[in-house]
Automatic annotation (TrEMBL):
Protein name in the entry: RNase H type-1 domain-containing protein
Listed InterPro entries: RNase_H-like_dom_plant, RNase_H-like_EbsB-rel, RNaseH-like_sf, RNaseH_domain, RNaseH_sf
Gene3D superfamilies: Ribonuclease H-like superfamily/Ribonuclease H
Start and end residues of each RNase H type-1 domain: 193-293
GO MF annotations in UniProt: nucleic acid binding; RNA-DNA hybrid ribonuclease activity
One Pfam family it belongs to: RVT_3
SUPFAM superfamilies: Ribonuclease H-like
Amino acid sequence: MRTLTPRGHSLVEYVKELIDPHTDDWDEQLVSDLFWEEDAAVILALPVHQGRENFISWHYDKLGMKIPTRCPVCDQLEDGGHLFLKCKLAKQLWRALGLEADRVILANKQLALDTVEFNLLSTEYKKLVMTTTLWYIWSERNLIREEGKRQSIELLARSVEIYVKEMRDAATATTVTAVSRARRAAQWPSSKGGSWGALIPDWDGDVVLAGRGKLITCLHGIQMAISVGAGRIILETDAQEVERAIKSSSYDESTLGNLLYEVKALLALNFIQFECNFVVRKCNRAAHELAAQGSLCNEGEEMVSIHLPQSVDVIVANDDLLASNQ
């Protein structure tokens, strides 16, 4: 039988402990003290048989795990329909992707099976877009709940479009040219440290994420300029591909699309005037020297200097002289 009485802090663990050793029958006083009246009546009515297995006297309490019932985005009661189709975040993303009509149809479905069936009966392209949208809504909701961070709807929609494009391109590719190319490693015997690098080509042999490091550097430079209150900025890079990516929309749907969107958004929102220019590598030596100085820091350590290192002073002076002679 299953009792309704919670165990609480009772020390009684097995049925045998409820038996009076002198009478080999139930200890009525103990049973009445431990269990609710209705449970005690049922227990005392049970016959006691010697030689039976000694069972535990309590069923384990179902403690479970408390789950928040409110949506972390809009604080409404949350279920599957609200999360993916009715929350304001979900509505905005579906609309940004041109899928409002499909969202309304799905929101009126009563069963999850019906929503899956609607998806499976859609075209291959729409099926991929809707599935990817659901995944991004779920990921964004978790990011808001765990870290309190939220991305713009435009960035989420662009992420969905880029991912869908990559999936379709991968599905139509027929051959794989290579997985990894031009792997290199370097080691410094004195410090026993080292580094490595590799070029990863795509289906057509073009290098994936080429220029990503340069773009990340530009992003950090922009953020530093914002922090000091600069109103105008000139970005200089020795990578022509990065210059083209920032000045045009040619790379907006590439794997660098999200990073480019962030760079362009920061430039447009925080500066009165901005430029991005290509310069030869020798004109960028000051930045390279600072990067070399930064490589001497331990991981997670920030090196801050009021004055530039002497080597950088000389490089900047030489660059100014070179510019004045041109």
